[in-house]
Amino acid sequence: MNSQSISDRTLAELQNLATLALLYVVFPVNLIIVAITLIIHTLNSQANSETNSANVRINSGSNQRTVLITGGKMTKALQLARSFHAAGHRVILVEIDKYWMTGHRFSKAVDRFYTVASPRTDLEAFLQDLTAIVKQEQVNFLVPVTAANESYYTALAKSSLPSSCEVFQFDTDLIRRLDDKYEFSQMANAIGLSVPRTFRITSPEQLLDFEFPSDSSRYIFKNIAYDAVHRLDMTQYPMASRQAAQAQLQGLPIRADNPWVLQEFIPGQEYCTHSTVQNGKIQLHCCSRSSAFQVNYEQVDHPKILEWVTRFVEAYQLTGQISFDFIEAQNGTVYAIECNPRTHSAITLFYNHPGVADAYLSKQPLPDAPLQPLPSSKPTYWTYHELWRLTAIRSSSDFIQWFNSLLRGKDAILQAADPLPFLMVHHWHIPLLLLNALQRQKRWVRIDFNIGKLVELGGD
């Protein structure tokens, strides 16, 4: 038993205990916020009871669907559950066993909550669990909300589920191509869409011996497979020396079966998008300025990006959910950096839009498609992430800017008609994960309240 391992265990204990203590301190404030929100909403609901009753009658007709949404720990799953529920549909929420405690299960929008085996550790059990739920609850529409490393597994379920259940997701082969940053760049290039120059790297030696163009361009070295920690590594190449590159590459898992990409670095403004598409047509779309660790979203009207996405989904006749990361260069050209064939958290911008369910369920193009966040939609954020940002404030102007961003936006989890998840995520879900990490004497890199997990080295 060496001193380093003892030190690591001590640091893990301190990290988890200190965080639990902070959550305990702010618990009364959270409880008051939820109580006040609930009281105000109740009073407003009583004042508008006739209108609300009429809406219930309209939404409870024969078009009601039973919708199963996976990825229940993530805010984007909660948002979709609320959107389908508001449109009169019955919602079943699902998450893997590890996250049985998700605070979203307490949402008014959720009719039933189930856990399933993790597909990463037991794919057969996962498929059996999901099939059993679909049959038991007579699910006829499944919306996969997945982490980056789980999209492929839910696509596999399409062949094992009853034919009466539609799975709103791409096939496995397409998901693999879209998830692969190199393959995606080839798909975009093939139809004349702008992407950065991208090269597949399968070994450290290949990168060390790479002949960089003589035009002074810079490149970002990124992993293809999802990694919660390495995905934030934006080291630029070429480096000052071969020795410096060797030091940076030390320990990185670069292999033929785990390739990385070398992608041209293009200075400019970053954007992220989410699109819900049917038969090559965009039904719903949003666009927001981006950052390396994205926990703030605000709708931006960007016609060039919308045109890029439109051309891509039409060319490949896509049906499902698709997200892109873009860079707008100084000359105004937009380049797609990567594609994520799944739901994006920017969909939280549709918190007050009544047409979200139709965008998913309608087989025909909507008359006002693509739907975009309403003009009244506020920017979304996660309050506890914003509280953490206070540690970076160094001046009064920084504080004023931070405070104004809170006033003009809204928390992505807190909803007046459904406030309980806000309480349960922060003071049930996350504390239980911290207690588990404390028991395992495990340190973590950060808490992600958006996706409901502790980001750990080697974690899910």
Arrangement of strands in the largest sheet? 3-2-1-4-5
What is the averaged pLDDT score?
90
Number of strands: 18
Report low-confidence residues grouped into runs of 5 or more.
Answer: 50-60
Main sheet specs: 5 strands, parallel
Computed Rg: 23 Å
Q: Helix content range of the residues, please?
A: 25-40%
Structural shape: globular
Q: How large is the count of helical segments? A: 14
Q: What proportion of the residues form beta strands (DSSP E)?
A: 15-25%
Structural class: alpha/beta
Distance between the termini: 28 Å
What is the topology?
Elements: H1 3-47, H2 49-59, E1 66-69, H3 75-86, E2 90-96, E3 112-116, H4 123-137, E4 141-143, H5 151-156, E5 166-167, H6 172-179, H7 181-190, E6 198-201, H8 204-208, E7 218-223, E8 236-237, H9 242-249, E9 260-265, E10 268-278, E11 281-289, E12 296-297, H10 303-315, E13 320-329, E14 334-340, H11 356-361, E15 380-381, H12 383-389, H13 396-408, E16 410-411, H14 420-439, E17 446-448, E18 453-455
Parallel strand pairs: 1-2, 1-4, 2-3, 4-5, 15-16
Antiparallel strand pairs: 6-9, 7-8, 7-9, 10-11, 10-13, 12-15, 13-14, 17-18
Helix pairs in contact: 1-14
What does this structure look like?
The chain has 460 residues and is of the alpha/beta class. The protein is built from 14 helices and 18 strands. The protein has helices at residues 3-47, 49-59, 75-86, 123-137, 151-156, 172-179, 181-190, 204-208, 242-249, 303-315, 356-361, 383-389, 396-408, 420-439, and strands at residues 66-69, 90-96, 112-116, 141-143, 166-167, 198-201, 218-223, 236-237, 260-265, 268-278, 281-289, 296-297, 320-329, 334-340, 380-381, 410-411, 446-448, 453-455. The strands form 5 sheets. Strands 3-2-1-4-5 form a 5-stranded parallel β-sheet, with helices on both faces. Strands 6-9-7-8 form a 4-stranded antiparallel β-sheet. A hairpin with a 4-residue loop joins strand 13 (320-329) and strand 14 (334-340). The longest helix is centred in the N-terminal third of the chain and has 45 residues, at 3-47.
